Amino acid sequence: MRRSNLFLASSFVLLSTMASAEEGMWTFDNFPIAAANRDLGVSIDQKWLDKVRLASVRLGGASGGLVSSEGLILTNEHVASRCVEDLSMPERNYVQTGFTPASRAEERKCPGMVAEVLTNIGDVTQRMQAAGGGLSGDAFTKARDAEAGRIEAEACGSDKTRRCQVVTLYRGGQFKLYTYRRYADVRLAFAPEHRASAFGGDLDNFSFPRFAVDAAFVRIYENDRPVKTPGFLRWNPAPPQENQPVFLSGSPGATQRLLTQAQLGTVQDVTLPLEQLINSELRGRLLRFSHENERNAFIAGQAISGVENTYKRGFGRQQSLIDARFMARRAEAEAAFRAKVQADPALRQSIGDPWTDLANLQPEMVRLYPGYYMLETRAGGGSQLFSWAKDIVRGAQERPKANAERLPEYGDARLAQVENGLLATRPTYPALDEVQLAWWLSKAREILTVDDPRIAPLLGKESPEALAARLARGTRLGDPAVRKALWEGGLPAVQASDDPLIQFLARIQDVTRATRTEYEGKVQAPTDRASEALAKARFAVFGTSLYPDATGTLRLTYGRLKGWTYQGRTVPYATTFGGLWQRATGAEPFDVAPRLLAAKDRIPGATILDVAASTDTIGGSSGSPAINARGEIIGANFDSTVLTQRNAYGYDPEINRSVLVTTSAVTAALRHAYGQGHLLRELGVR
C-alpha cells in the first residue's frame, strides 16, 4: 500500500510539471510524441496523430473509431444500447436477440444519434480571457458565454454539417475552438445480445477479469449513402500480446485533478455524498419498477444500467477521498506548488492568492449547490419527456434573443444538436417517466426542505406523485409531430399550449433560471476567475508541457497491455473465451448470451476476449479505439476498474487499468456466433 500511495503522490506532482509514462489524457495539439516514443519504444509522428484524430468519432457522450472506407464505426454495445432499445419493442426485442442484419440494406437509423469527427483545433484564449476582463459575478459569466457564442457562430454559422465548440482547458488557462464534421444519419450495423456485453452484470461491472463482448458497429450516412472514409483504422484480428504498446483515442468526460484541496474537500463532504444518496434511491425505485413485470424490466433497463454505473463510479471515488494518505499526498503537491509561486514576487503579485480565494468560496458553494443540482443538473430525474419539454420551452424563450445573449446551449452553432435530439422519432414510456419525475420532485422537496421558497412554485398544491402522474400521463410530447410543431411555432406556440408538461416547464422557469443565475454568478464566475489565475501560475512555474483536465473532448492516452498486483493478488492482463465458459453458471448474471453459447464449440477457447491496459481513462472513454503503433485497431475500451475511479483526482500507474474488448474476440463472435460474414469482408478479414 505504501508503494501505491507513493505512486499516487508522484502523479499529483507530475500533473503540475511533466506527466509520467502512461499518465495523461492529452489533447491532439499538445501530445508528447517524443515521450511516448521513448516510453513505449515506438515511432509515431504527426502524420500518425492526424490519421488517428480523423478516424476517431464522438458519439454523444462516448467514443468510436472508423474501421472501413465506407463509414463503419466500432464502438461498444453499451454505447449503442440506446439505439438498440429505440429500435426494439417488447415483442421484437433486439436487446435480447441482438441486431444482426444480413446485409447493409437492413441497417437501421439510430434515432437522435450524432457522430462527430474533430477536423480542426484553433486557439481563442486571448478573445475569451479579454471578454471577462474587469468583470465579476453574473456579468463575467454572461460576457464569457456571449463571446463563446460569437466565436462559434463566426466559425460555423448555421451549417448543420459542422459543429463548433469553445472548449475550456486548464480550468481557464486556455480556450480552444474545436470544429467537428457532424453526421446526423447514424445507422446500427450490428449489436450482440446485451447479455453478451454485460456478462456478470453489476457484480462484474468496473472489475477485471472481465468476459464481455462489449462491441457494436454503427455506420455514418449522408444523402442516404454511406460516407466515404478512406482514412480509417485498419482491422487487426491478431491476438494482442502482454506488454504490447497501445493508444486510446476518445472523449473522456471529466477529471478534477486540477482542483485545489479546498475544492476537493467540498467534493468529499458535500457534492459527492449528495449525488451518491440521490443515485442510490433512484436505483432502488427503478429496480422496484422493473420487478413489477417484464415490460417494465424492458423499458427501465437503460436507466438502471446508467444509474448503477454512476453509483459505482462514485463509490470508487469516495474510497480515494477517504484515503488519508491519498489526500495527504495531494496536499503535499499543492504546498510545493504554492511555495514555488511564493518564491517569485512578480508572479505572486500578478496572480494574487487564488488558493485562498477558492477556499473562501466553498461556504457559498455548499449553500448553493443542492439547489443548483436538484433544479438544474438533475432536473426531471432523467425523464426523456421532461428533457424534451425543457428544450422546447427554453428554446422558445432563448431563440428570439441575439445569439450572444442566449444561454450557451441554445446558441446558433448548437441548435442543430438540440433539434436532432428533440425531433428524433423514438419510443416513449410514460410509466417510466412518471417514476423518474416522482423521484425527482420528492427528492427536491426533501433536500431543499418544504419551506424553501422554490418548492411551492415547483409543486403547487399537488404531491410529487400526483403531479408526476398528471404530467407523464397527460403530455402529448411522445408524438414527434407535436414536438416539431411546438419547436417551429416558437414562443407563441408554447404560450398557447395546453400540454401539462409544457405548462409545468413554463411555470417553473423563473425559479430554475434564478437558481442557475445565482449559482453561476456567486460560485462559478469567481471560481473561473481564481482558476484562471492558478493556470497562469502553473504555466509560469512549470511551462506548457502538461496535460489539462478531461472535458469531454477528444484526447489521446497511451500505455501497455498489462495486469497488476494489489493487496497480494496478481491479476493477469487478459481473459479468454475458455475463461468465459468456466465462469458461466447458467444463472443470471452469469448466464452466457444464447447465440454465444451456441457457438461454444466453434470459438477456440484460447481466443483472447478482454485485456487490461495501463492507459489513462475516465467515464466517456467508452468505445475509444485501442490502436497499435502501426495505426491499426486492436480493440475498444469499454470499462475500467473500481480502483481506477480515483482517476478523477490522480493517476496511479500501479493499479489504474482500462478494460478493452479485443478485435480478436469481435472477429470470433462475428464469424462463429452471429453470421456477420459481410462485415468481416468489409473489415478485410478472411
From TrEMBL:
<dbReference type="GO" id="GO:0008239">
    <property type="term" value="F:dipeptidyl-peptidase activity"/>
</dbReference>
<dbReference type="Pfam" id="PF10459">
    <property type="entry name" value="Peptidase_S46"/>
</dbReference>
<feature type="signal peptide">
    <location>
        <begin position="1"/>
        <end position="21"/>
    </location>
</feature>
<keyword id="KW-0031">Aminopeptidase</keyword>
<keyword id="KW-0645">Protease</keyword>
<dbReference type="InterPro" id="IPR009003">
    <property type="entry name" value="Peptidase_S1_PA"/>
</dbReference>
<dbReference type="GO" id="GO:0006508">
    <property type="term" value="P:proteolysis"/>
</dbReference>
<comment type="function">
    <text>Catalyzes the removal of dipeptides from the N-terminus of oligopeptides.</text>
</comment>
<dbReference type="GO" id="GO:0070009">
    <property type="term" value="F:serine-type aminopeptidase activity"/>
</dbReference>
<protein>
    <recommendedName>
        <fullName>Dipeptidyl-peptidase</fullName>
        <ecNumber>3.4.14.-</ecNumber>
    </recommendedName>
</protein>
<comment type="similarity">
    <text>Belongs to the peptidase S46 family.</text>
</comment>
<dbReference type="InterPro" id="IPR019500">
    <property type="entry name" value="Pep_S46"/>
</dbReference>
<keyword id="KW-0378">Hydrolase</keyword>
<dbReference type="GO" id="GO:0043171">
    <property type="term" value="P:peptide catabolic process"/>
</dbReference>
<keyword id="KW-0720">Serine protease</keyword>
<keyword id="KW-0732">Signal</keyword>
